[in-house]
Each structure stands twice: as C-alpha cells, then as structure tokens.
Amino acid sequence: MNRPAHPRRRSARDWAVDSVVFLFALIFGLIVFEDTAKAESREFLVLLDLVSGLALCFAVWFRRRWPVHLALAASVISIWSETASGPTLVLILSVAVYRPLRTTLLVFAANAVSLVLYLQVKRPPDTGALAIAAIALYIAVAGWGLYIRSRRQLLQTLRDRADRAETVAQLQAEQGQLRAREEIAREMHDVLGHRLSLLSVHAGALAYRPDASTAEVASAAEVIRASAHQALQDLREVIGVLRAPVGELPQPTFADLPALVEASRAAGVPVELRQDVVGALPDHIGRTAYRIVQEGLTNAMKHAPGEQVTIDVTGAPGNGLAVEVRNPAPSKRLGDGRGLLGLAERAALVEGRLEHGRTSDGEFRLYAWLPWPS
Q1: Which CA distances in Å does 264 have to 284, 292, 299, 324?
Q2: Are residues 36 and 97 in the same domain?
C-alpha cells in the first residue's frame, strides 16, 4: 500500500465531510451504548466499553491516513465495546473507498471474526438476528464504499482521457500549423527567388547595354525598383510567417463568409447565399461554419464546375446554427472524401453533427448543425 510521503492537507470540503462522519460515529455508538449500559451490571466493563469506543470515535479523524490500521484496531475493540460500532462502520467504509478490493475483504473478514467473538463474550439476546443484522450492515457499508471508489476511479479515468485527447488535439493542431508554415515558407521562398532573378536580369541588361536610351534606362530602372519593392514585401511576409507564435496565425471568422462567396463568384461559380442569423456567433462556431461552407464550395468547383450553388445559413442563440450547401450532384463522385471526414471531425469537436449525400431531386447536400448556447 503506497502512500505519499507528505499527505495533502484537508480542504474545506474534507473538514466538512470528516465532521459529519465523526458526529455519525459518535451518535451511533452512544445510541448503541445506551442499551448496553442498562443491561450490563459490571461498571468496569461499561466504563471500558465507553472509553475505548470514544477513543475510536476520535481516531476517525485519521481515517484517510491509516484506514486499514484503524479498521483492524476497531475489529479488536468491537469484541467488548458496543460504542465502537459507529466508528467501525465508518472505518470499514473508509477502507473500501481508499484501498483495493482485496484489502477491503480482509478487513471485512477481520470484523466478521470480531462479531463472532463479541457474541461469545457478550452473549446478547436474539444472537441470530443480531448477527444477521450486523453482517448485512457491514456488507451494505462495504458495498457503498466500493461503489464510491469505483465511481471515483471512473471519473478520474474520464478526466485522464479528456486531458490526453485535449493534449493530442493540441499537438496535432500545432503540427498542422507547422506543416502549413513550412509550405507557405517554401512557396514564398520560390516567389522571392523568382523576383530576385527578374531583378538580376534587368540589372544585367543595363550593364550590357551602355548604348540604351534614356527612356529605356528609366523603364528598366522602374522595373527594378518595383521588383525590389515587391521582393522586400515578400521577404517581410516570409519572416512574419516564421516568427508567428503557434496558435496566433490568422483564422477566418463568420464575418468573412460573404467575402468567401464573392471570391467564388469572381472565379465564375454562381453562388446564392441566404443568411438568417440572429445575434453574434461564438468564434469557434463561426469558424467551423466558415470551413463547412468553404469545403462545400471547393467540392462544387471540383465535381460540378459552373453549376449553381445554394448556401443557407440560419440560426439563433439556443436554437443552434444550421448550415446547408446544395449543388447539382455529378454522375460520378470523385475524391477520397477526406475533406468531408475532416469536416465531420470538426463538427464533432464543437458537439455538432454533419450530414452529406445525394438527395432525391439529384442534388448533393452538405448539412451541418452546430450548437449555439443561449
């Protein structure tokens, strides 16, 4: 039984629980002792019963640190002390809560033996009924403790899984951002190299043409100036991408949705956007809705180029946000579906749902419902 070298200090909740437990043990033990005091004529046995039982009641305050030791001590004291019945129940419960099942069974067996010895020493009336009631009470208390222990272990397991899932999701997001950064940086490097090459060509032309006219020299110089300025801008963008801390790269919002639709229209896609959204969306819900529409437009441009795309976005606080993208379905569906799979995972992360497929009227429908708290 491994225990920490420095037990944690009691919290306010621990003090409250321990106080209630102590009062229960004390009151229960004194109620049982009252009957014993009336029936027992030997005063020294009555005094021994009361003193040892009260000592065990005060020992309940240390049940978190030494549950097994105190429970075994209680099994011995219970042989002659009925006042110890209250703290004994509490200590059996504590062992079931804080120690494994095997230890609980051993403590339970020790208290069962103690009960047998008690019946031999005290010889109370209705021995059989008393034994059955005591064993039933022991079983109920131990079972309750085992339930509490199992529930705590389950909750801790769920917390650990949630923490691991959150950590994994964060690492995956960071890795995805790093990969995106590398791709952007490589692309910008190629662009920057291209611009510098153009600048070198124009400068070299001036060097090898000393007979160029003033107008030609001015034109080439203007091209060099513009290329150098653009190259400098590209270089700044590369440095900005590489310096941006993880988690602070720009992310689209729901307010960017009209701009996304306009960009698709400019590319030749007939898009109709209908919005009926009341209130300000939470950032993570708006970002998810944007990505769903973006994927729907991408699929439409890939698999049904030039066809009409209809987008409906409706929602209000408390009712959720519904996003629907429709376009004529192609006769043959292309692609590996990874984009839709990613959207389903994205919707699940915000506790929403995603549906997609062909409709009876020959359209491809992408539908998502996202929660929107009131």
Answers
A1: 23, 14, 12, 17
A2: yes
